[in-house]
Design goal:
The protein has two domains: about 120 residues, no CATH class; about 170 residues, Hypothetical protein af1432, CATH 1.10.3210.10. The chain is about 50% helix and about 10% strand. It has 13 helices and five strands. The chain has a five-stranded antiparallel sheet, with helices on both faces. The radius of gyration is 26 Å and the shape is elongated. The N terminus and C terminus are likely disordered.
Length: about 350
């Protein structure tokens, strides 16, 4: 096994320079080969199998030999770290599963109403960019990204005759179509899951307008959830920018003129300003060039945790007093052959 800085992915370190040296590599290699933790003088190597096939490794070095009590405390401490990372890993797996289910359901609705390919994915990515630009936390922005593909879930109750009509809807047909917002809200609103609660608000509010002339409840300004206001911008931008069964795609110049005109009418004026400030990123998504980067929906290999969160003070005060401690925690990918 080549335990280099590509194979060994550092999750946390007490050093600014989190690379591992030659001696550390050899000890980590030994732990992987023997598949067990061990002590070597004033060094402890922790070896733990993780979910998703990852091997979590802990390297800890002190400036003096470890006593038996310190060894026992250290083993307990390292086991807790292993459990914590496994829990985080499982949490990421749940998030990824929820994301995939939501996106697949959104794609089903998209295909049934003959909307353009990848519509829900583009709405999802643009919503994330706007949420971050608005100042929402990574957690909220990611939740909007995961939930926004469900914005039209209520269309499951709308007939194909209306959904697939190639021409303009009659007044009666349009009134029927408008029901999808409340239908989507009713489908999702009773969930105890934050993701589906967010999706419910998006389904209900994404056709409301800043000036109160939207539907279904004629909410206005900040009466409309921020989730609905963000998704409205992303959804309308994608809808007018792509061909539909009832219309051709608008040229970008016309789209931008429309958003200028609808600032403070259809859309939250602050979000329109942010839309223009991030136009390059948004048009790249429109052209299928990029996928917005998200820090909240990555596997555990991209999770960075500060050394303090792993108990630096605990180690120094209770375990090693004022000793100098070097601690590096990371994992080896399941695709690395540990026997070489």
């Amino acid at each position: 096994m080549s335990v280099d800085n590509d194979a060994f992915n550092v999750l946390a370190s007490s050093d600014v320079n989190s690379t591992v040296g030659v001696m550390e590599k050899e000890l980590l290699k030994k732990a992987c080969f023997e598949k067990q933790s061990f002590f070597s003088d004033n060094v402890f190597i922790g070896y733990y199998s993780s979910c998703q096939g990852k091997t979590i490794l802990l390297y800890l070095e002190t400036d003096s030999p470890l006593s038996e009590l310190e060894k026992k405390l250290l083993e307990l401490f390292s086991q807790n770290i292993s459990i914590a990372y496994n829990n985080l890993c499982l949490h990421e797996e749940i998030i990824d599963t929820q994301s995939e289910v939501v996106k697949r359901l959104g794609s089903v609705i998209e295909s049934r109403s003959q909307e353009t390919a990848k519509h829900v994915e583009r709405v999802s990515d643009v919503s994330y960019i706007l949420a971050k630009a608005y100042g929402l936390s990574e957690e909220e922005a990611t939740r909007i990204r995961l939930a926004s593909p469900m914005h039209d879930i209520g269309k499951v109750a709308i007939s194909d005759q209306i959904l697939k009509k190639p021409g303009k809807l009659t007044e009666e047909e349009f009134e029927k179509m408008k029901e999808h917002s409340l239908i989507g809200w009713k489908i999702l609103k009773d969930s105890n899951r934050d993701l589906l609660k967010t999706a419910a608000l998006i389904a209900r509010d994404h056709h409301e307008k800043w000036d109160g002339t939207g539907y279904p409840n004629q909410r206005k300004a900040h009466e409309i959830s921020i989730y609905g206001r963000i998704t409205a911008v992303a959804d309308v931008f994608d809808a007018v920018s792509h061909k539909r069964v009832y219309k051709d795609a608008w040229p970008l110049e016309k789209v931008l003129e429309f958003f200028h005109e609808q600032r403070g009418l259809h859309f939250d004026p602050k979000l329109v300003d942010l839309f223009f400030e991030n136009l390059d990123k948004i048009t790249d998504i429109h052209n299928n060039k990029i996928i917005a980067e998200s820090g909240g929906n990555e596997y555990i290999k991209n999770l960075k945790i500060s050394f303090e969160e792993l108990g630096e003070e605990y180690l120094k005060k209770l375990l090693f007093k004022d000793a100098q401690v070097k601690l590096v925690i990371g994992f080896v990918s399941p695709y690395i052959d540990l026997t070489k």
